[in-house]
Design a protein that fits this description.
By secondary structure, the protein is an all-alpha fold. It has helices at 3-17, 19-23, 28-34, 74-81, 88-96, 98-101, 115-126, 151-154, 160-166, 191-202, 209-216, 220-231. The chain is built from twelve helices and no strands.
Length: 234
């Protein structure tokens, strides 16, 4: 059996195992397709890890801001301390309008207007929260890297002090405190995600003309320095 066939079979088993729960929310199979819009920042499934956003395994029933080691916004930490639990109602509200539910969230997403599509995505995510230990493994659903970079480029150790010097141009638009006022936050991004994104702009694979111009001026070492600086920025 090929890897693709095994993956399809694993997903089919997951959908069957979670059908009752999923059907009460929406169409989990369509949600798996729609999750592609989320997977640039979030992973779910076997071997899912936190990156730009936290992984979403076990999201139902989890307290907001509760994954150890992930850098949440002050707003999410505050909501978690106040008792916000992710359930169908709160997740639907957050996906519909993140900033309406959590003031100051770092999630760079304007919101999902279509109620049925939100229900389908939540039905898909619910499959990874219903007694996860009993669920078969499936392929991680994060998107593949936008740019395949040589290992030596990803291995460059960025100079934080040099990154701070270079970051003045970045911080004319991106807020140092991680707030998002229409421009995505880049504070506390994982180094590899930052480097890949900048090289995607540099190669004009990402379409923003200002970012293409800014990234096009930077060497591999300068990109690494900026990534190192923003990774641990308070």
């Amino acid at each position: 059996m090929t890897r693709t066939a095994r993956s399809s079979l694993a997903l089919a088993v997951i959908f069957a195992a979670g059908a009752l729960c999923a059907d009460e929310i929406g169409d989990a199979e369509n949600g798996a397709v729609l999750f592609g819009y989320c997977s640039g920042c979030h992973e779910v499934g076997a071997d899912a890890e936190s990156g730009i956003g936290p992984h979403l395994n076990g999201i139902f029933g989890r307290a907001a801001g509760s994954i150890d080691g992930f850098y949440y916004s002050d707003g999410l930490n505050r909501m978690g301390a106040d008792g916000l639990i992710w359930d169908l109602r709160t997740l639907d509200a957050y996906i519909e309008n993140p900033r309406a539910l959590v003031s100051g969230t770092r999630m760079s997403f304007d919101g999902w207007d279509n109620a049925q599509e939100r229900a389908d995505v939540l039905a898909y995510l619910r499959l990874y929260s219903d007694n996860p230990a009993d669920l078969p493994e499936a392929e991680p659903t994060a998107r593949p890297s936008e740019v395949e970079l040589p290992p030596e480029v990803l291995a460059i150790q960025g100079d934080v002090a040099y990154g701070e010097y270079l970051a003045s141009d970045c911080k004319t638009c991106h807020q140092q405190d991680g707030s998002d006022a229409g421009i995505p936050s880049i504070t506390r991004w994982p180094v590899d995600d930052f480097v890949v994104a900048m090289h995607a702009y540099k190669r004009k694979l990402r379409p923003h003309p200002v970012m293409q111009m800014q990234a096009g001026r930077l060497s591999d070492e300068e990109i690494a320095a900026l990534a190192a600086y923003f990774k641990d920025l308070d």
